DNA sequence: ATCTAAGTACGATGAATGTCAAACTTTGAT
DNA sequence: ATCAAAGTTTGACATTCATCGTACTTAGAT
């Protein structure tokens, strides 16, 4: 019935523990940067399978894992789907303008 | 006599050929990020040996090479010393706010 | 009760990367 | 003419990383 599942929520790092090193390591990968950019462009949250990615499912899982550990995205289950949100405001509080600059540069690079 | 040597100038990429991917690959390394931050904080250009780095000379050379290839720094010789400048304005033109956000975040991360 | 869709977990693998030491080059000073 | 300082080059090495296929789990639909 499309209800949110609280049991299988993976661990998310507190905002205060987010490091620049991890954020950059996350965003240096084109696939992960694409995920963040697509999230930034979207109005609603996106499930893992809803992204335009050119990698296998297991590889995609790997990338989402790294993005979550870096503190860039928040994940929650809805049925069998895992939804993704960009933690933009939280990261902006720690590293002002960082995500914005990278996302903008990424968008520009793809055109 | 401390004159600038034009002969041994290494190749620098044109601004238009600078890619986000290369810039991020350059700045994801802590040593290279430290170089850029020190350059950003300094008033004058800095020679390779003038940075506070905790790596060997050959490793430092490697890092400067990558920063130059990425288009982040400009290098020129003065005697036996290789001077380094940050190509801030040029990169700002291509990726607005990117260097600033990363340098600011890096400074904050070190304190 | 089955079956399918959506992800995850687990190796395995091949490529890239940061590091250093040693030998070399070049410039400026003695 | 020698010597030292500043970087570079090369080669080696260990580590990390992105990728995939296969097997597995879980939830919802039939």
Explain what the structure shows:
The structure is a homodimer of 111-residue chains. Chain A is an alpha+beta fold and 111 residues long. Chain A has five helices and four strands; from the N terminus they run E-H-H-E-H-E-E-H-H. A four-stranded antiparallel beta sheet of chain A has the order 1-3-4-2. In chain A, strand 3 and strand 4 (81-86) form a beta hairpin. In chain A, helix 1 (20-27) runs antiparallel to helix 3 (57-69) and helix 2 (30-41) packs across helix 5. The longest helix of chain A has 13 residues, at 57-69. The model of chain A has no long low-confidence stretch (mean pLDDT 94). The A-B interface holds A 19-21, 24-25, 27-28, 30, 33, 94-98, 100-102, 104-106, 108-109 and B 19-21, 23-25, 27-28, 30, 33, 94-98, 100-102, 104-106, 108-109.
Notable features of this structure?
homodimer; 111 residues; DNA-binding; alpha+beta
In brief:
The structure is a homodimer of 111-residue chains. The first copy, chain A, has 111 residues and is α+β, with helices and mostly antiparallel strands. Chain A has helices at residues 20-27, 30-41, 57-69, 88-94, 98-110, and strands at residues 4-5, 46-47, 73-78, 81-86.
Mean model confidence by pLDDT of chain A: 94
Low-confidence stretches of chain A: none
> Biggest sheet of chain A, strands in spatial order?
1-3-4-2
Quaternary structure state of the chains depicted = homodimer
Number-wise, the strands of chain A total 4
Task: Supply the helix-strand structural class of chain A.
Answer: alpha+beta
Estimate the strand proportion of chain A: 5-15%
Please tell me what the overall shape of chain A is. globular
Task: Write the H/E string of chain A, N to C.
Answer: EHHEHEEHH
């Amino acid at each position: 019935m499309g209800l949110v599942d609280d049991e299988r929520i993976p661990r998310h790092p507190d905002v205060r523990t987010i490091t620049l090193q991890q954020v950059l390591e996350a965003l240096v990968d084109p696939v992960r940067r694409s995920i963040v950019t697509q999230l930034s462009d979207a109005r609603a949250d996106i499930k893992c399978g809803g992204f335009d990615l050119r990698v296998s499912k297991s590889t995609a899982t790997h990338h989402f894992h790294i993005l979550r550990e870096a503190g860039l995205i928040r994940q929650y289950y809805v049925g069998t789907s895992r939804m993704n949100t960009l933690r933009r405001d939280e990261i902006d509080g720690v590293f002002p303008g960082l995500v914005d600059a990278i996302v903008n540069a990424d968008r520009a690079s793809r055109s």
